[in-house]
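Sample pair:
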Amino acid sequence: MGLLLAASGLGFFATAGAAEIGFAAARTRALTSAPDVTLAERRAELSQVDVRIAAQRPNPGASFTTARRTAKLGTSVSVPLQVFGQRGTAVDASRAEARAVTLDITATKREVLWSATTAWIDLWETQQRAKLLGLSSEDSQRLLHIAQEKLDAGAGARIDQVRARADRVRAEAEAGAARRAIDAAAARLAVWLGAAPEAPLLATGDPGYRVEAVPLDTLLRALVDHPALRRDRAQIEAAIARIRNEKRQRWPLVNAQVTFNNNDPTLPGDDVIVGLGLELPVFSNREGNIARARAEQTLATAATQSDLQRLGSGLLDAYRRTEGERLQFLALREKALPAISEARAMTSEGYAMGRIDLLRVLEAQKALLDTRLAVAGANASWARAVADLERAAGVDLGPGGLDAH
């Protein structure tokens, strides 16, 4: 599937100490090392703490009093009792929220996978461009050497030597600029791998997607289980649980009170007083809290509908683009590149034998470079389209993903 070049290795742009990372390795590392994943995991841990907080029971209270004419010591103990299910609904609401936050980890990983994949493809394409321009620079140098030999032997024109020298300078400048662009692309990838932006990176291998197309029906069936939609549905359930909880919290707490009066001269002995206290919902009936929970449910429902529409549209868009990019890539690689390569070899041989002028050689050389760049660009564009398709469908389309297609 990858681009076959006349030269192999990373010699054109190798950086001392650069870490080489392949397509699959970059994707795997991003899922565990990207800062966004770490933040999502920390939020999930925090939500579990909220469940523990909701499960806490209110503390009892104690008071001590004394009087000049009655009891010398009055001891009171009150115990709040959540006898109307307030604690249970609070725990249920916190657990529903924690489930939504936990599912957000999977949705975040899907976004991180897309970001790391496209960043790796950008670096790979930049390297391919640098490699091809390096090959072109070498071709220009060889052509200048031939032109110089023919001029020295009296079989060539001075203008050919000048034109070949100018073409070599141009090719070297383009190759140098392309090599410097690699560091910029590596910095964009580094953040998704949890590496320092200045860390030198090199993408090895080719984009690891299968060339075979995936049936659209298969992707549409997978869409319903998209991580973002699962998170959205969990957020709706969490909002409903909050509504139930807020309604339940309107029920009053029951305070069981026990008072022990000791050494009261007005009584023949010690006295024990037992009673119950209730909160009176006079000034607040939690209507504001309930209204907010209902608004959150409405928002979560709207977000689910929006995500479903966005993902469905994105899936169809990416699928059509994938089809077009795939056909273009295969046509350029399988048909155009071999023909242009053959034409380039024929013109070079003809120029060396004096049958073809330099201009034809330069044109053929430029055509070969443009075609090679087009193949690399089409490969990268097709891989980006597949990455967009992965993102929209919420599935893995790499080797072994989606039941190996």
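The longest strand covers residues 73-81.
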